[in-house]
Each structure stands twice: as structure tokens, then as C-alpha cells.
């Protein structure tokens, strides 16, 4: 059996790690295609090194471009790759342009396709990620859902008969890395010399409008603890375009962290402020209070358990949502037990 995975952006390298390991254990020949959507060393290479994933066999090196151009470049390169490797299955991950391109290329060639992290919905069609994930679910032959809520969405869209609840593969990685880093030095505490909150920002809705970005940065800068902003390249580039100074007030700007260091920094943080999907969930699992700078989230369990609060991207809303007190403790494990990747491979082998 030969399975081909298509990845391209930072969170996909994390999702790929446990699945690549599970495929190796199952004796599957696994071909990894990296589209090149993320190409900076600290957005890409360090994840392969730190999470023990072999280098991709194929690198499309498409780089950055507008949505249509970036997705189109991947799509046009994928035909040749699929013809060369003739995989039995293609696996795509999450909601990025690399995901939709991989799914569309494979299904058009009648290659069975599985979507890891299927069924998530924000119901916000302004988000490119929402359009990517809805289309990918409907293209795919096998929808591998992380949560019961995702299963409900798939069923509501008539996809129940091709959907399987496997759990969240990012949780697999987090639970194992957490044990490895617990006793390691915390790079962020070292840099700021005390308490801090961690922040990230990269969604187009937050970064691509100057007034919105300015309001968010001002609100981060006015917080009562250092706000350690792990600056995504999109954020840096838009802030430079608009002349917005990121290092404002309490903000301490740092480069994005490699995954193990991110987990270590999260364990030691007072709180998290983010628009990342993955980080909301990681904060919940590590029981760090999270504020999400968005009008909705796909990970609704984090809200219901009280560990995540949404804030519209304006200074008042953010200041009000960010809090020092810890929510009531909970034993809820909506994202699974750390064994999702094994269930992904088993579900594909059952088909
Ligand atoms: C993408 C995904 C998003 C995911 C995120 C994780 C889409 C539509 N969005 O958003 O779902 O949560 O990745 O980070 O697929 N850039 C660099 N170096 C890099 C990568 C990007 O400088 O290695 C810059 C470029 O200026 C680029 C911008 O970042 O224009 C945005 O990159 P892009 O791939 O379009 O989307 P992300 O915002 O990273």
C-alpha cells in the first residue's frame, strides 16, 4: 500500500508527524509532498527535524502568492506527482490552500482521498480556511473527524456515510511533546524574566486591514503583563506595509518558536491571545486560559469548558476578555486520548 500525504503549512507538519509514524509502524510506503506554501526555516524545516519526520520526497516550492495563483500552482504541479507515484490513497490535512489543491488534484484523477481534520466549521465564509475545508470535505472519499461536533457537521451536510470519528491528531503530538519538555528551560520566561502571556496573530481578517491591526496591537500593548508576540511572517509583512510598530507598550516581539519550545512556553504562560486554531486547543489541553481574537471558533468545546473566550478585534473587547483568573477546572477530553493517528491509518486500511 502506498499513501501520499500533501502538506505545506506549519500546522500540517504537526498533524503529519504522528500519522507518518503510524504509517511506518503499519508497514505502509509513505510519500510526503511539501507544496512550499510555508518556506521559512522556522515555519517549515524545524518541524521536520524536531518531530522526527523524514524530509519530503517531493518539494513543489510554490511559495507565496494570491489565493488563486498559489492554489493553481500547486494544482498544476500535483498531476505529474500523482502520475509518477500512483498512490493508493492521498491524505490531506486541515484547511489550507495546500489541502484543497491536494484534494482536488487527487480526486480528479480518481485517487481515493482522505481528509484529516474533517468537519470543522466556523460558518464564516469570509475565511479562506472555511471555503477550503468545506470543499475538501465534499471532495474527499473519507472524512476523518477530530470531534463529535465535527461529525455532526459532516452528517448535517450528507457526508455521514463516509465519515469516521478518529480524534484529534494534534493532541497526539501535544501529549507526547508535553512529557519531553516539562523539565526543559523555558525560552520565553528566560527572555522576559517573569510572567507573560503568549500571543500570535495571522488570520487575514486580523492582519490585512490597517485599522483592525492597529487596534489589536494597541490592545496587546496595553495589557498588564508582557505580551510575547510570536510574529508570523504575514503579520510582520502587513505591519511593515502599514507602518504599524509591533513592539508597542507591553509587547515583546519574538520569532515563531519551534514546536517543542512553543509547548514549553505555553506550559509556563499566564494566558494566550491568538487567532490560531491549533493554539486555542493546545492552550485548553494544557489548561492555559485563552482569548481568541475572532468572532467564532471551530473548536467550540474550548468555549463550553470555559477556558477560551472570543473577542472581536477591537481594543475594548480584547481588554475585557483577557483575564487573570483561571476558569473552573475540568476533566473534559473532547480532543481524544492521544491515539488518533493510529485510528486514521486503521480507517484507511479498512476501506
Ligand atoms: C496559512 C493557512 C492557514 C494556517 C496558517 C498557519 C491558507 C489560506 N491559510 O496562512 O489556514 O492557519 O497558514 O500558519 O492556506 N510567508 C513568509 N514565509 C513563509 C510563509 C509565509 O514570509 O514561510 C508570508 C508571505 O508574505 C505570505 C504570507 O506570509 O504572503 C501568508 O502566507 P500564506 O501561506 O498565504 O497564509 P498564512 O497566513 O500563513
Summarize the helices and strands and which ones pair or pack.
Layout (H helix, E strand, L loop, with lengths): L1 E6 L2 H16 L3 E6 L10 H6 L7 E2 L7 H19 L3 E5 L3 H12 L4 E4 L11 H12 L2 E4 L2 H9 L6 E3 L3 H13 L5 H6 L4 E3 L4 H4 L2 H12 L5 E4 L2 H10 L8 E4 L4 H9 L3 E4 L2 H9 L4 E3 L7 H5 L3 E3 L4 H7 L18 H11 L1
Parallel strand pairs: 1-2, 1-4, 2-3, 4-5, 5-6, 6-7, 8-9, 8-11, 9-10, 11-12, 12-13
The structure holds uridine-diphosphate-N-acetylglucosamine (UD1).
Uridine-diphosphate-N-acetylglucosamine binds next to α1, α5 and α11.
Account of the 3D structure:
There is one protein chain. This protein has 351 residues and is α/β, with parallel strands linked by helices. It is 46% helix and 15% strand. It contains 16 helices and 13 strands. The protein has a seven-stranded parallel β-sheet, sandwiched between helices. Strands 10-9-8-11-12-13 form a six-stranded parallel β-sheet. The longest helix is centred in the N-terminal third of the chain and has 19 residues, at 67-85. It is globular, with a radius of gyration of 19 Å. The site of uridine-diphosphate-N-acetylglucosamine has 19 residues, from helix 1, helix 5 and helix 11.
